[in-house]
Amino acid sequence: MFKIQTLNKIDPEGLKNFPLDRYEIASEFSNPDGIIVRSMKMHDMKLPGNLKAIARAGAGVNNIPIDKCTNQGVVVFNTPGANAHAVKELTIAGLLLASRDVAGGIEWAKTLIGQGDQVPALIEAGKNNFAGQEIRGKTLAVIGLGAIGVLVANAAQALGMKVLGYDPFISVKHAWKLSRNVGRAEGMESLLANADYVTLQIPLSDETKNFINKDKFKMMKDGVRLLNFARGGLVNNTDLAAAIESGKVARYVTDFPDEGTLKMDKVISIPHLGASTAESETNCAIMAVDQMREFLENGNIINSVNFPAAEMEHTGGARIIVANKNIPNMVSQISTLLATEGYNIANMLNRNKAEIAYNIIDVDRKQADPALADKIAAISGVIMVRIIQ
Ligand SMILES: NC(=O)C1=CN([C@@H]2O[C@H](COP(=O)(O)OP(=O)(O)OC[C@H]3O[C@@H](n4cnc5c(N)ncnc54)[C@H](O)[C@@H]3O)[C@@H](O)[C@H]2O)C=CC1
Ligand SMILES: O=C(O)C(=O)COP(=O)(O)O
């Protein structure tokens, strides 16, 4: 039986894909084999000894201690693209909320309760205070052209905006999906100097923390509207407060409000609703569960953020999976040990990603002795071994 712990509410449509004769699912387990999580912060959590994999039902993995997981041989998955349409739609809503004072107007309209028959006239008299601008013809800078950024860029272009994209690491897959009408920014300076709206669709990492700071605000037009449906830590709050105060930023729309931004003027705060649609929650849960099962049952790795992709058809016989440091001479030590122990390799796959190498080895025996795992684990540089019978 595999034990799967859910750290957030995970859509049952996904969880039902765990067959109950082989899986136990609960929100509390002392030593689970797998964890499924959404946004809960795991950095202070001690990783359970049996833990083999963490699946993030969503895109951002900044809530997961990736390096610690890698060092302990724990494979971390996410579900790329599974919630991208939901975030695209809310980002488009953000563009409109940044342009027309719909939020302020709604608040004001509620204050008219009790004015009886006067309400329609008061509405007409007061609406001037909430007028705005159109997005058509304005320039949008999209920073990050991944699953979400490409959809946002294409949708904004279809709504009549001029769109400039910026992503020095754009993947071929996403480049193919980008409308040819989306312009390529030559660099940050020209991108920000030309933008009426800037939207962030990049991950939060050590490299991107405080990505929007006083230097970037300096490059922006006065009255720019900034959208952040990516992560709060991408924007430096002190510099944002100064940019709002000086009129550089006309509106900041954020899906990640904090105590600091809640107190600022001109900020529209959304309570992290980007991926909160029935469709996205289902998509993410199904993908997370499928990837977790594929790894636990077959050792195959699909959409991991810390391990290489590795898929090999299981042709029968015992399967041994081994993760090791990506250094020379590991495969030969492992295969020599297998030969010494009398195992013939029927099929083998070796993949690597950064510091990690991962092997899937099928042997032509139905069962492998569990003690074999300990012998492989004793080879210096081996991080994780598991036998799948
Ligand atoms: N508001 C919400 O509920 C949600 C927020 N997100 C956030 O959005 C982020 C992006 O999500 P996806 O598009 O699905 O991820 P993705 O991995 O498909 O795309 C991210 C893109 O950002 C690019 N990038 C990375 N560093 C960059 C930099 N310094 N400058 C320019 N581009 C850079 C990458 O090359 C990649 O193309 C997630 O990491 C997460 O933080 C994602 C889903 C839901
Ligand atoms: O997928 C992401 O990165 C998100 O921010 C969505 O978070 P959530 O699953 O709604 O807690």
Automatic annotation (TrEMBL):
Keyword Transmembrane included in the entry's annotation: no
ACT domain span: 319-389
Lineage of producing organism: Bacteria, Pseudomonadati, Bacteroidota, Bacteroidia, Marinilabiliales
Catalytic activity: (2R)-3-phosphoglycerate + NAD(+) = 3-phosphooxypyruvate + NADH + H(+); (R)-2-hydroxyglutarate + NAD(+) = 2-oxoglutarate + NADH + H(+)
E.C. numbers: 1.1.1.399, 1.1.1.95
Record-given protein name: D-3-phosphoglycerate dehydrogenase
Naturally occurring in which organism (per UniProt): Sunxiuqinia dokdonensis
Coiled-coil spans in chain: none
Sample GO molecular function, one term: phosphoglycerate dehydrogenase activity
